Each structure stands twice: as structure tokens, then as C-alpha cells.
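Milestone M4 deliverable, item 7.
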Amino acid sequence: MAAYLLRRLLLVIPTLWAIITINFFIVQIAPGGPVDQAIAAIEMGQSSGLPGASSGSGNGKASPGLAQFGEGQYRGARGLDPEVIAEITHRFGFDKPLHVRYFEMLSDYVRFDFGDSLFRGSSVMGLVKNALPVSVTIGLWSTLIIYLVSIPLGIRKAVRNGSRFDTWSSSVIIVGYAVPSFLFAILLIVLFTGGSYLDWFPLRGLTSPNFDTLPWYGKVTDYLWHITLPVLATVIGGFATLTMLTKNSFMDEVGKQYVVTARAKGLNEKQILYRHVFRNAMLLVIAGFPATFISMFFTGSLLIEVMFSLQGLGLLGYDAIVQRDFPVIFGTLYVFTLIGLLLNIVSDITYTLVDPRIDFEGRQ
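Output delivered:
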């Protein structure tokens, strides 16, 4: 197993390189970069200086993923002095050749140095560190609740397949799956955050302003109080897939020969279900863990972060795309990819813990 894990960890390196490289060259053809943003702001009188003047690329490093164009190709270049445009281009690192920026980016990323944000006045690593706990909080709690509910529910539906319980529970989870998370979030906000009805939960943030002054038990209560609605809004559509996967996995195993043999030996249904069927049926459920967590961690939390004013990675990446803040875009992409690859390795380890017969190292 150790040799297999070592191979998987080494495979992370070329995978990261391929994803970052492909995205680096894709953005070269994307219109409207940071220089366009800066020139447009100057022309509209929205800025007295250059965006990012104090922090954009003050470390002298080229910004990864920035396309290099001639001065006349900037849409906002009309009416500006060419020296001003040249200064903006130099400040954002556009004056360097494409291959130089690419290899500088790779060199920096090996050292987990993502440079500085062009518009936020902070390093990319600092922004990621501040946003990561929020996304991890939503992702972990959502995934935990989904698994704690879906696995027992799927097992019960498999045992009582075709019953009234199976029918109405399927209807409920399908309706929940059909409801968009942002729509459910709006409903929760209207009902429980002091709108037209109840004022039970806070509307924004993960902690109260006086969080640091609270005792430890007060901090735990305050944290759970703030996270309740965002997590509920995130998990509403997550039960259906895992519940039906669990049910179908158990039903498929129940029909196999070893279950018939166990019944012939006189084992009761509970022993058969939890001593024999459970281990085999859970393999498919475990295989879906990385996808479930990643969907909760990244894609599923974006609108929730926006609606509840939670400064997580999803909102950070979205704002960076809108602003064409390429260092932040590539930094969050790097973190997203790395976490996803490591979760796949964790999934393989969990496979062997559930069923020791699985030997990845012995595969050809």
C-alpha cells in the first residue's frame, strides 16, 4: 500500500502541472484583462491611481495568466498617454514575454508563492488562508449531515423496498433535489432571519462581533448558531443522489449468492445486512465521497456564500474572475485542484479500511 500511495502522490505533480498549464494558455485568448480594468477605471474617473499600485505586483513578479497585447489593442486605451499605458502594462507584468511569465509562475507555485492580488491589496496566500476555513466549514458540515442522513435512509429504503415508506421518502428527497439551494436559502432568510416572520438566526457571517469575548462554550454556540442556515441551504439537494446510491447498492448485494448462502446457514436478516452486505455495499458509497465533498466545498457553496455574506473560496474565486484578478484565479484553482487530488487518495485508503481484500498495490 505504501508504494501505491507514493505513486499516487507523485502523480499529483504532473496533474497539477497539466491543469495549471492548460488554464494559463486558455486565459491568453480571454478578452478584458487587468490592464483593461485599470484603464477603464482611470477613464471613468473611478480611481485616482492605478489599481493594485500598492500591492498588485509590487514584488516584481509577473502576474500568471496575463495575456500580452499591444498598446493599441486595449479597449480602454483611447485618449490615454502611451506612457501611462506602458506603466500599467509594466506594473501588471504584461511587458514580459509569454514563456517568461509561464516559467516564473511554475517556479513560484512550486514554493506555494502565488504572488499578490492585483486589486485587493493583499497576497493571494493571505486571501486563501482567510477564505479557506469558511469553505471547509460549509463543506465538512454539509457532507457530514448528508452522509449521516442518507446512508441510514438508503439502507431502510432497501430493506423496505416497494413499501409506503419507500414511496413517500423517495418523493420527499426528489422534491428536495429539485429545489435549488439558493431558492431554499431565500426561503430560510425570509422565515428565520428577522424578515417578515421569525428572528431566530443571524443573516450574515460565521461569528458575532463579540465572538472573541465569549467563553469557549459561548463560542461553540455562536458558531453553530451562525452556520445553521447556510449548511441547511447547502445540503437540501444533496440527499437524493447518496440515498438512492446507498439503496441500489444494498439491493444489488442482497441478491447475490453469498447472501443466499448466509440465509441457508441460519443467520438472521440483521446479521446478514450488517455483517456481510454492509461492507460490500458501502464501497460504492465511499467512492462517491470525494465528489460529494468537492461539490459541497466548491460549487455548491458559491451562491450560499454570496447570500449569507460568507467570505469563502467560492466567493473569492468568483470575484477574482469578474475583476480579472488572475493571480487570485490561479491561486484558488491550484488549491481547489490539490484538495481534490488528495481527497481521491483518501478515498482509496478508505476503500482498504472498509474491505481489506482490496489491494491497489497488487493491481497490474
